[in-house]
Specification:
mainly alpha, MetI-like fold, 2 domains, two-stranded antiparallel ribbon, 16 helices, 75% helix
């Protein structure tokens, strides 16, 4: 049989195809029948899509509902809208300071993220590559700092901000948010820098490159997916942060979106649900766009930088 296969190339190709087909069928056997695909693939995907997309659907639906449909749940279907209106969105954009709040949120999140990433890159590189005594302990201590609840820190930080005259200013958030962002992003970049082969730096050192040149020209270009992952995490945390923004910002023009929509559209026990949901929906769009453009880099950061 072996001699016949070796003498006839067509039989060899056919045998190889048969083996490959059998291997594929074993690996994908759970997708052979339609009932199994429904249970193991389509149903879980449907549940995940419903769980993830329903909050956006509910916000969009509520933001275009007339007031009578928001109040009367017995007459109108709560999961659908009969006569949609855009007055809530119009009121949000043109009768409030929502564009200013959106700019404040963008400015604070971007500035805090840039500062945090710059500090985290230097800290992570020093801990991973300089090989000083106690580097692992320092890395663990930095990560433990991230586990401290913000509810414990915002009172002493508020005293510091008040003492420096930064109260009720977006600058106070820009200086405070890195206390939350640097520990985790440093720990994240430490793990990513470890996947970059040290031989690249040794070659650069032999050629006369300095540590700064190695960091700028070798490490950072290879760590772009990791930097993007850390940037997305930091930006998202800044964008959604509530406790510090509520404590440090008092005047309406200086507020960020999460605090402003709650303070301005909730009056005691009266909730302006249309404008409230419209503000939440519009405020979540920048993050959706950010994830849509950089999701591939975010996923690639989970697999490491360079394979040896």
């Amino acid at each position: 049989m072996t001699e016949t296969t070796a003498s006839d190339p067509r039989l060899a190709v056919k045998a190889a195809a048969t083996v490959a087909q059998s291997d594929d069928s074993e690996g994908m056997s759970y997708l052979e029948s339609l009932p199994r695909r429904l249970v193991t693939l389509y149903l879980p995907l449907l549940i995940i899509l419903v769980v993830l997309l329903f909050p956006f659907y509910w916000m969009a639906l509520t933001s275009i509902k007339p007031d009578e449909q928001l109040i009367d749940m017995d007459t109108y279907n709560p999961f659908w809208v009969v006569h949609p209106t855009f007055k809530h969105i119009e009121k949000l954009l043109f009768e409030t300071q929502y564009p200013r709040w959106l700019w404040n949120t963008m400015y604070v999140a971007a500035a805090s993220t840039v500062l945090s990433i710059a500090a985290s890159v230097l800290a992570a590189y020093a801990i991973v590559r300089l090989r000083f005594r106690g580097a692992d302990t320092v890395g663990g201590a930095i990560f433990l700092a991230y586990l401290v609840p913000p509810s414990i820190l915002f009172i002493p930080l508020a005293s510091v901000i008040q003492a420096y005259g930064l109260f009720d200013s977006p600058l106070s958030l820009i200086l405070v948010y890195p206390t939350l962002l640097i520990p985790f992003s440093t720990w994240l970049l430490m793990g990513y820098f470890k996947t970059i082969p040290f031989e690249l730096e040794e070659c650069a050192l032999i050629d006369g490159a300095s540590r700064w040149q190695i960091l700028i020209k070798i490490i950072i270009p290879l760590a772009v997916p990791g930097l993007i992952s850390a940037f997305i995490f930091c930006f998202t945390l800044c964008w959604n942060e509530f406790i510090y923004a509520l404590t440090f910002l008092q005047s309406t023009p200086n507020k960020t979106v999460p605090v402003a929509i709650v303070n301005e559209f909730v009056d005691g026990d009266i909730y302006k649900w249309g404008s409230l949901m419209a503000g939440a929906l519009v405020g979540s769009l920048p993050l959706v766009i950010l994830y849509a453009f950089f999701v591939e880099h975010y996923v690639s950061a989970m697999t490491g930088a360079v394979k040896e």
